[in-house]
Every structure is written in C-alpha cells, then in structure tokens.
Amino acid sequence: MSVKAFKLVSAVEREMLMGDKNHINIECIECCGKNLYVGTNDCFIYHFLLDEKISTAGKITFAATKQLHKYLGFKKPVSELKAASALTRLLVLCDNTITLVNMMNLEPVPTGARIKGAVTFTLNENPVSGDPFCVEVCIISVKRRTIQMFMVFEDRVQIVKEVVTPEQPCAVAVDGYYLCLALTTQYIILNYNTGVSQDLFPYCSEEKRPIVKRIGRQEFLLAGPGGLGMFATVDGISQRAPVHWSENVIGAALCFPYVVALDEEFITVHSMLDQQQKQTLPFKEGHILQDFEGKVIVATNKGVYILVPLPLEKQIQDLLAGRRVEEALVLAKGARRNIPKEKFQVMYKRILQQAGFIQFAQLQFLEAKELFR
C-alpha cells in the first residue's frame, strides 16, 4: 500500500543546460545549500542558484538561475563533483585528476594543487583530523588494489596514507578511520589506521553496480545480493532489517525515515522503520540519485529533479485517513528525531487519540483502550 512521501519537482530544464545541443549529457551533480553544480560529458561545469518557492496552496517549485559555466580544457567528461564549503572549494574529478576550483567563480586555485591518479573519490564526513579548514579525501587509485587518503586544504593537498586492498576496489565510503569498500567479489570494512579488515558479504561487481553509502555515524547502506538493500555498521553487523529493492538498482539515498532507490524505470521509497515499500514513482532514463544535506536529487542525462518530502504530519494523517493505524504510529514514533520535543508530544497525543477512535469504530476495544490511555 502506498504513502505519498515525496513529490518529484523539476529543478533544471534541459534548455538551461544544452539549448539545442543534443550531444550534451549530465555526468554528475553536487548541491551545497542553494548552489547546484552540474558536470557534463563535454568537460563543462555549470553553476546554478536554486530558489525554492512555496505557493499559497503549499505547492513547492524550484527556480534555477544560471550563474556561470566553465570549460575545464580536457576532452573527457567531468566524472565527479564534491563541494568543500568550509574551504569554498569544489573538488572536480576529470581525466583521473582531482582539481580544486573556487566554488563561486569556478577558477582553479592559483597554486595548481591537484590529486593525480584517481579513479573515483569521496569525502570523509566524520573527519579524524579535527582541522576545520581541511577536508579528508579518500580516492581509489589508478594503481591496482590501492586506496589513498589525502588532506585537502584551501590551496594544497597532502597524502596521509596509502592502503593496499585484498582485491581491486570499485566503490568506497568513509566514516572516521573506517572504509566501507566494494571489492571485485565482496564488501569489506577496513580500518585504514590499524589495517584490520572485516568481510561483510559476497557480491559480484562484474554483474551489478555496487552501492556503498554512508548513512550515519559508523553505518553504511550497501546493495546486497538478491536485490537487498543491506545496512552494516563498522563492526560488521546489521542493526536494521534489509529493504527489498529491485535487482538492478543504480543509486540509493537516505531521507529519514526513508531509503530511496533508483532503477531503470522507477524511484522506490522504503521505510527504515518497518522496511515496507511505501511509494513508487515512474522515472525513466534516470542515472543519478544522491542526497545532499537532506535534499534528494535525481537526474537523467538531460534534466535535474528534486524529490520534495511531504511533511511527516501530512503523511501520518493520510495513513490514519486510510485506517492504517499501525503504520501511522510507527511513522509518528520515527518522526521524533525530526520534530522539537514539545511539538512532538502534542502531535503524538493527538495521533494516539485519533488512532484510538479508529480502532474503537472498528470494534477493536482493547486496542482502542490502550491508545486512549
């Protein structure tokens, strides 16, 4: 049974990016506050300002204003973008090289600082250095079976550690000293400080695209075998039941209490609270799904869209209107971490009362009595 948890809203129309040039494709996106960056296959970066507008009827729309675009000078696609807002830097991966550019004017840093030999990279969102003017970057190196850790400052980079992995890594997420790695045949957790590693479960990266995503402190979300979205902590255990995805998931994102997944035809929404699938949105030709500070963005080759979450109170009321009392109560309890304490207590009492009346009307008197209590 479905819940309307998200609405799909267009953010950047194809004309804004490519006009009538059909050969231009979106390769990667990054969003930081109101700043949206798009990297394309013809080696350009586009910078847009996203303005969220709410109509009197409560309808949300986005207006994207193009700030500037910049050609990086290669004949290769821009394959990844990551913002380091504390440094006002954008890290740009193109042709196996990570270049530091200014977030506002997209000019490379004057020192020419860069990281060479990177296949892919990610930032450590739980850094270990304690330096606010530095970001920790983990790269999968072009050297076989090698991961490298760097400290990136405003105008220089410094290698911190190089780690050899048991097999070739193809995807990585970082939390503190812990690396969660998709290798050729399995997922592992590796502490790059101590060198201790732990096998998670087997997975064939040659058959399917692995997904490794940090979803919180010391916890990751992985695309497991049999179309399962599996949760794993840095201790190698799972504290949540898996969610059932389709076999060919391309990307996953988290917007508590939901896990959102993208495949070739749909965006699916599962609850982390009861693992049930709550919503399916048709979405063809999608190839990017990412969350940025709670904002979930999807993209095709030609356009960028935002998944706007409906207020949790509205979702709970919809469930109660459909007499789905258990689901409404599970969602209400899960909403506790998103709502201020006093407001939550008032809301929760009202929901228990409504749920009690629904159970009472269905002649479930014992359950109603508990809820009224």
UniProtKB/TrEMBL annotation:
Entry keyword Transport: yes
GO biological process per UniProt: autophagy; endosomal vesicle fusion; protein transport
Cytoplasm in keyword set: yes
Transmembrane region(s): none
Cellular localisation: Cytoplasm
Taxonomic superkingdom: Eukaryota
Signal peptide: none
Cellular compartments per GO CC: cytoplasm; membrane
Alphabetical keyword list: Cytoplasm, Protein transport, Transport
Residues of the CNH domain: 23-296
Regions annotated as coiled coil: none
Name listed for the protein in its UniProt record: TGFA1 protein
Organism, as annotated: Penelope pileata
Gene designation: Tgfbrap1
